[in-house]
């Protein structure tokens, strides 16, 4: 059921997903193609904010900070998972892997490399800020407009 807290959490994490993707772009290098990287990460943030944070409001401000940080972690995980899968499919089309198992192992290797590249001050700062501010913001919205 749509609530004001779900809407605020979804919009907040969509914005923070876009900012985190924007902070991650310098780590990708100049030769990387960005495509719809920011927009897809914002969509992942929107879904995570709506489903995770928006659905768990009403437990108090202290718990909302933890839930906000959990939402940031899930956002980062699914962004790395999705974009690593996209990279793996591209490499598989160029016959980089020997078979399906090699492609799956390559996907995990790409996830590890992308997570390592993502661990910059800018990206981590945005994700921590998103969780610490977004949780209480959704909680406040829920209390204000039940």
UniProtKB/TrEMBL annotation:
Domain of life according to the entry: Bacteria
**Regions crossing the membrane:** 65-86, 118-138
Per UniProt, which keywords does this protein have? Membrane, Transmembrane, Transmembrane helix
Q: Which InterPro entries match?
A: TrgA
Asked if Transmembrane is a keyword of the record, the answer is yes
Query: Any idea what this protein is called?
Result: Tellurium resistance protein
Give the organism the record lists. Answer: Pseudogemmobacter humi
Q: What is the lineage of its organism?
A: Bacteria, Pseudomonadati, Pseudomonadota, Alphaproteobacteria, Rhodobacterales
